[in-house]
Amino acid sequence: MRFTSTRGDAPPVTLSQAIRAGAAPDGGLYLPDRLPAADPAALDPALSLPDFAACFLAPFFAGDPLEPELAAICAGAFTFPLPIATLADGRRVLELFHGPTGAFKDFGARFLMECLERLGDPAHPLTVLAATSGDTGGAVGCAAEGHAAVRAVILYPKGRVSPFQEHQLTCWDEPVRAVEVAGDFDDCQRIAKAAFADVTMTERFNLTSANSISIGRLMPQMAYQAWAALRLFTETGTRPGFVIPTGNLGHGFAAVYARAMGAPLGPILLVTNENATLADWARSGSYTPRASIATIANAMDVGAPSNFERLIALAPELREVTVELVDDPAIKARIVADHADYLWCPHSAAAAEAYSRLDPATRAERPWAIAATAHPYKFADVIEPLIGKTIAAPPALAAILSRPSHKDRIPADLRALAALLAAGSMVAV
Ligand SMILES: *Cc1c(COP(=O)(O)O)cnc(C)c1O
Questions:
Q1: pLDDT (tens digit, 9 = 90+) per residue, 84-125?
Q2: Which CATH class is domain 78-103+216-396?
Q3: pTM higher than 0.85 for the full model?
Q4: Fewer CB within 10 A of the terminal residue: the chain, N end or C end?
Q5: Pocket of ligand 1 contains residue 135 by CB under 6 Å
Q6: Domain boundaries in the chain?
Q7: 150-157 and 126-131 beta bridge pairing
């Protein structure tokens, strides 16, 4: 299996090379050069998630140096449960927040780190450089902890993340360094981009990225959605519909791709917040990226979803989706309306609201799974005032709070970042 760029202007590469590179050199995103067909033997609902993932993803790894490692990669990545809850009114919820940092980003970050650990060299480790304002940085830091051939350096903007978010970025041990940048999120992204564009720095520090365009983050999302679809299909005899809160379109694209590969998945309803790019495209057929708008479902605040390029690279009959836009007042109303039965995070609430807008006949046709992408505790500042109650931390997030925190501080400047990368072990603050 070879991987080619969505822009068609870069040489084909192996899976290992695509994972190591992140984006293609022509600015496009890597996809397999032909659609891998799922091995029918892989579609066994009796398999555990790691075993299922190893079968489902085998075609991607065929012929790659990582091929013999696939089972171990899956075993190291899928270490927590993925329940499909049933609510009192029959709604189904795909609970993706049982990982160590309480959001579905754990799946992608852990799988990618397991791959990078096997592609790196402990004598000269890879460095994952990530600029983050939200869930990704915590998931990447957690996933990198304890590795030898890959380290993580996470840049975050001073004073722009919530106290819990900061703790979740700064609580990981070697080889993870959390770096507070004196600037805003755009400054963090600017210096990360400048570092990647600097050949001397990328080579000296073996820089690599963990952002959501990495094929190494998409594959595990394809696998768990195929697994969940298969479980619901086996239970009900009908292909389930998925309702997916969408930002960069990583999760949503992975569902579309898993379906194209043969997973028994029915309609896919992508749900956005007030960032209307995808909803406008679905309505008008024309795609116009724009600047992002801040909403309470902030992990979905994306005006130019990067994985859109991958979606339109698929044949039209394979990429059918519908899009529903849910604004902040509707997200809040959904959290309030449902909280006695189920507590949604703002992203998951957007999906629950979109599901409730489906017409009853469409809902009755099949099981529908609403993706719950983060634990509500992570958004307690938004939710508690709405419901008038405090939210208890689940065990994984309570464990994060009990860890000591340490960070480095730099000005928003590339030379300061280079000096930090060159310095040895981290300094406790
Ligand atoms: C990242 C994220 C999303 C959006 O996922 P994409 O793959 O970017 O579309 C939704 N909900 C939560 C909680 C997230 O962290």
A1: 999 999 999 999 999 999 999 999 999 999 999 999 999 999
A2: alpha beta
A3: yes
A4: C
A5: yes
A6: 78-103+216-396
A7: parallel
